Amino acid sequence: MATEQTKWNMSDIPDQTGRTAVVTGANSGLGIATVDALARAGAHVVLAVRDPKRGEAAAATVQGRGSVEVRRLDLADLASVREFAAGWQGDLDLLINNAGVMNIPEASTKDGFEMQFGTNHLGHFALTNLLLPHVTDRVVTVSSGAHKMPGRPYIHFDNLNLTGEYAPMTAYSQSKLANLLFTLELQRRLAEAGSPVRALAAHPGWAATNLQSHDGSALRRAFMRVGNRVLAQDSKAGALPTLYAAVEDLPGASYVGPDGLGEMRGGPTLVGRSAAASDPASARRLWTASEELTAVMFPELSVSVRS
Question: Do residues 49 and 25 touch, judged by C-beta distance below 8 A?
């Protein structure tokens, strides 16, 4: 049986020299840990962040053989998503959809979508499809064990914005379930198009980051503070499933998480997902709804990208 010392870790990341990655939400927590690991392995990493000043401060902490740069991206504003994608030139080996908001008070994006669904899913949906003609290797989307929390989370297709029935945890669980359904349908479409690009998902388990500090409930915030000290792993350990999905030779639509009790901590491994997250009909329905809401479609992939 593998010991903690022999489990897959950042030193196992293969050489990334010559590769380019984009990491959303990269100025803190799991995002900057992911950036740092890829840069140490030699990659050029773009920190896609809402606040460039904070992004530059985070980028200054990165060490390694690779390089970093900061570009502005606000996933809660589709105009910003389009601007980011329009400014991209050349190949993109790896897109990591890491950014997210969690259990926040009810709010809306600039385009009028419920903030958690709009940021965690729709923003990344639009970004991925707009950048996809440039992607040469894979797309990794960060989900959460919250996609299968008690209450059997599901996609509220008749009320995606949860108007009149908003609850922070309901909205978060829906957005994380959407991340997995998005990955499932994206992989189906890539395969159908004959593309070698793969779509994968990962979750960090319980990682101590500042994400929990924005919870809309004071009681949950207090619980999270205790949990972060007692149960959680640090952001570097929490980033391992994302990194594993990003660099290891895994099948498309794979889902990676920690191998410990309850998938809260431990080394990265392939993990299961709920039945709701495995439903191809729901995945296609969500994709259609997302195209309608964002006015962004699955692109026609060129022969050069598929070769």
Answer: yes
Catalytic residue flag (residue 172):
yes
* CA distance linking residue 91 with residue 94, whole number of Å: 9
pLDDT reported for residue 45: 98
- Whose structure tokens read 């962004």? 296
Q: Name the maximum alpha-carbon separation found in the chain.
A: 53
What are the start-end ranges of the H helices in the chain? 29-40, 52-59, 78-86, 115-116, 124-131, 168-192, 218-230, 235-238, 240-247, 280-294, 303-306
d(CA 237, CA 204): 8
Q: What is the spatial distance between Cα 191 and Cα 168, in angstroms, rounded to a whole number?
A: 35
State how beta strands 67-72 and 198-202 pair. unpaired
Tell me: pLDDT of 285 over 90. yes
Query: In angstroms, how far is CA 96 from the centroid of its own chain?
Result: 6
Name the catalytic one among 166, 172, 244, 255: 172
Reading the block at residue 158, the tokens are 């008749």
Q: Distance between CA 292 and CA 231 in Å, rounded?
A: 41
How much is the average pLDDT of 241-261? Answer: 96
Residue 199: is it exposed, middle or buried by C-beta count within 10 angstroms (0-12/13-18/19+)?
buried
